[in-house]
Each structure stands twice: as structure tokens, then as C-alpha cells.
Amino acid sequence: MRDFSQDHRWLSINTATVRKQRGEDWPLLDILDACATRGIRAVSPWRDQVAAAGLQATAQRLKSHGLELSGYCRGGMFTYTDAASRQAVRDDNKRALDEACTLNAPCLVLVVGGLPGALAGKAAHRDIAGARAQVSEGIAALLDDARERRMPLAIEPLHPMYAADRACINTLEQALDVCDTLDPARSGALGVAVDLYHVWWDPKLHAQIERAGKERLLAFHVCDWLTPTTHLLEDRGMMGDGVIDIRRIRAAVEMQGFAGYSEVEIFSQGNWWQRDGGETLDICIERHCRCV
Ligand code: ZN
Fold this sequence. Notes:
It contains 10 helices and 11 strands. By secondary structure, it is an alpha/beta fold.
């Protein structure tokens, strides 16, 4: 297992972690500057942040700082109600792939979607099995586009509390079942993003990490689970402030040969987004050394 205690060379910052400072949007290019100043070597930006900063401007700034990506957030949202929305999803995911290529991402992270319409507050139906079938079909189609571009897809299972509105793939086992069906050769084109916030509780976690193996482990996201958690989406904890046995899970992932970045991804409306962004980054570095 790698020693993270002496430096932060394997730390990546998911830029949602500092998307706001003191409650206001912090522009992506400024975030990249602040990361580079601190010797952070990798980031994982979100599409909306890249769109606001401009794709080419983002690519240039990454290059001028020598910053790598640990992933690109995100594609997915595959579920649909009619042929037009199905095509719109496919087109949008192709654009996400192209952006990921421009930014030299190692993978496009997929949040697969829940019941269509649920995220906007009104689910079109109650058929979660049907939604899951649409997800598999959507990933299968996108996999062809991804292979053409040599951009791997990383399915991120989300905690079951998001099954209705964000992702009906909720365990690593489910995600790997899709991988095995669509990419039985384990070609490297399809794998998973293991985000501790979503999977830490799973009694099958360690067995499924072993099943995933190096070829399927494309991204590793860290934060912590607070008790109590006061918001379903935006109350993630800083590493060390919650109940996740982070080091034990990292050891399991590295045992399989994972040697990529450990990406800090914290959505925190009430705490970390209220602070100065530089302070949040400094604490990410310190906690990454001490608790990851
Ligand atoms: Zn994540």
C-alpha cells in the first residue's frame, strides 16, 4: 500500500469540493491556479464548471500548470421517456466524451440516472427494473462511441438513497454485472469509479473490489460519512470527520493493483463551501496525508 503520509502526490481534487467559497461560485480557472500553487498534481472537473470557463481555456490552463485529470464528471443520465429524449441523451454523452478527450481525462465518470423525471420532482413511472434496462442499453451504445475515442467509461454506483433520482445502479456488484455483460473481455474500456461515500456500507464491498480487479478499477473517490448526515446530497464530510474506514478500503483497492489518484470529492453546502477555497484545499491536503 502506498504511503500517503509524507506528501500529496497522489491527491486529486474533484473540483466540486471547492466549487463554492463563502457560498459563491469559485471559477474553475482560479481553482486550477490554487491547486497548482499547492503542488496538487491532478483534478477532476465537472462539465458545468468547464462550460463556464470554456473548454479550450480549461485545457490550456491544465497544460500550463502540468495538471492531470483523475476523471471527468460526468456523463450518464441514460433513462428516457421517448425516442427524442433518448437521442438527446446519446448526443450529450458523446459531447461529454469529446470534452474528456480534449482534457486528456483517463475516464469519463458515469452517473447513470434514476427514474426519468424524478430529478426534476416528477417521476414518469415506478418501473426501476425498466430504468435499469435503459441504463444498460445506454451504456452499451455509449461504449461504442467510447471505444472509438479510446476513452474508458467508469460507472459510479451511487448510494441507494439516490436510486429514484440520480442512479439506479447502487452497488459495486450491480455495476460490475453491467461491466461483465457489456465488456466480458475486460478490455479496459469499461469499469467502475469507487466512491467511498456511496459504497462504504456494503457488506459485499471487499469481495466486489476483488472481483473488479485492476482492469475495472478506474477511479477512487474519497470523503467521509458524517453522523448525523443533514442533507442527502450536500453534507459530505472531510476525511477523518466521519465513520468510513478509508485506509482499509484504499488498501483493498491497491491490493488489486490500483495505482491512480485518490480523488477528494466533497459536496458541503453548510461547511466546506462556506469557507475560503484555499483553506478548504489546505485541509484536504492535510487530511489526505493523515486520514487517507
Ligand atoms: Zn464520486
